[in-house]
Amino acid sequence: MPKGAITVGRDLALTLVQADDDTAVRLHGDQLPPHTPKKKTSIKPRHQLKEPDTRVYVGDCRDVLPSLPDSKKVDLIFADPPFNWDVPYDEWKDGMPRTEYERFTYDWLDACVNVLSPCGSLWVNIPDDTAAEVVLHLKRRGLTMMNWCIWHFRFGQNRKSSFIMSKVHALYFVMEPLERIWNAEAVMEPSDRATVYFDPRTLAKDEHVGLRVPMDVWYGQYWGRIQGNNKERRALHHNQIPEVYLERVIRACSNEGDLVLDPFLGSGTTCTVARAIGRRSIGVEYSAGNAKSAFERIKEGPIRVGLAKGTSSAIFQPRKASAKTKASFADVGGAAEDALFPEDGSA
Ligand SMILES: C[S@@+](CC[C@H](N)C(=O)[O-])C[C@H]1O[C@@H](n2cnc3c(N)ncnc32)[C@H](O)[C@@H]1O
Asked: What is the per-residue burial (b if ≥16 Cβ within 10 Å, else e) of 152-174?
């Protein structure tokens, strides 16, 4: 019987954790000493809301996370770090020598791993140039990779020197694959079998008729980069993530009342979406100005949560089918909507 990718990944993680000096994975940034956190016995959020508890801390996440009262209680972390691309973030200097940037990356990843609960998930949004290092570091910390997703967008920066960049990696790691929080039903979408091929086998299923979990490449309406006159865009913020992206991650990997954390809050997308769908949340942001503006957004609420419900991500036009066949598939979108928004509010 084949072992399956998750078991293989779990075994590898355990092997890497137990590796001795000769077999340990070594990365370039290891030559610098780890960051020593400025740990405090009590820290106060700069901004806070109740029901659900929503807290925004100002500071370097490498210092804030070890001082939080929530150690080992965080159910889901979504991290979208600075990419070291000289982006003019308000206060953070986004242009370290590469070795320092790698060290910085391992330090904040460690701080995240240390606050995760045993059923917790860690998602990292990261471009090509650092994705491999993040994957290897988390594997050698003993985490298991569940998915290597891709966020695909169409408006990459034009260039002729190489293929145009049109993706960022969305890396999904967990502490314990068998204990993780995972809600497949909460993120299902109409399948291509139902919306393009009208395959009768999908109607014959006992549950989730015409639906499936999304594939690991994410794109579509509302999934574009937040720039230009995009309605979600917040002034003075850079590299905002679309609300639908956070909605998918949060619904899939947390339950109502669970605790979600974002160590690089930016414009506040994670906490804004988390709060709107009933999760407690913590955001950490280096810039006091960004944190204030993110808090304003959290209070205002998201503008696109729920808009992608029931929509298909198929890229082909529906095949020819009789009107009768098409009619029998007509409610598949409604089924996805029911899965995302059940009447008992349990999603
Ligand atoms: C890529 S942006 C995050 C964007 C966010 N995902 C959104 O949707 O708006 C990175 C943010 O992290 C902040 N930042 C950079 N280094 C930090 C650190 N060490 N600790 C906390 N925040 C930091 C920057 O000021 C910036 O606002």
From this structure: ebeeeeeeeeeeeeebbbbbbbb
